[in-house]
Amino acid sequence: MSSITRRRALGVAAGAAGAAAGLALAGSAGAATPGTAAAAGAEPAAFDEVYQGRRIKGGPTHGGGHHGGHHGGGYSVTIDGEELHVMQNADGTWISVINHYEPVATPKAVARAAVRELQGAPLVPLTLA
């Protein structure tokens, strides 16, 4: 006699929920995936534009110091002249202190996402004490 046990039913349900969550994450709009992100070793293009009334700039940095490349790969992003701390993930996507849980494909996209999230508020400099 083949009867299903509670343990087996919970295991099947958990597996199905995990698979559904994975499909939802893979198909979510705007989420960057390794296939859509720039290669981790490629240097992103510099940019300088006004986006939603805010001046966003980005480009490679040269030299040491905080921008020396341990997080942002030697890349600096500013909003209205204030530094937006950015970091490139291992899969080539980018995040910032403003949108840490929403990776995007380029530093320009991360600057634009931060502007949207700030909703007109000034970017306060990040101080490490």
Descriptive report:
The protein is of the alpha+beta class and 129 residues long. Helices cover 26% and strands 20% of the residues. It contains two helices and six strands; from the N terminus they run αββββββα. A hairpin with a 2-residue loop joins β1 and β2.
Rg is 20 Å
From the N-terminal CA to the C-terminal CA, the straight-line distance is 66 Å
Query: What is the N-to-C succession of helices and strands?
Result: HEEEEEEH
Main β-sheet, spatial strand arrangement:
1-2-3-4
What is the percentage of strand-forming residues? 15-25%
Percent helix range: 25-40%
Bulk shape: elongated
Describe the sheet with the most strands.
4 strands, antiparallel
User: How would you describe the oligomerization state of the chains in this entry?
Assistant: single chain
What is the mean predicted local confidence, pLDDT? Answer: 76
Q: Tell me the total number of β-strands.
A: 6
Low-confidence stretches: 19-37, 64-70
Structural class of the secondary structure composition? alpha+beta
Protein topology:
Elements: H1 6-27, E1 47-51, E2 54-60, E3 75-79, E4 82-84, E5 86-88, E6 94-96, H2 107-118
Antiparallel strand pairs: 1-2, 2-3, 3-4, 5-6
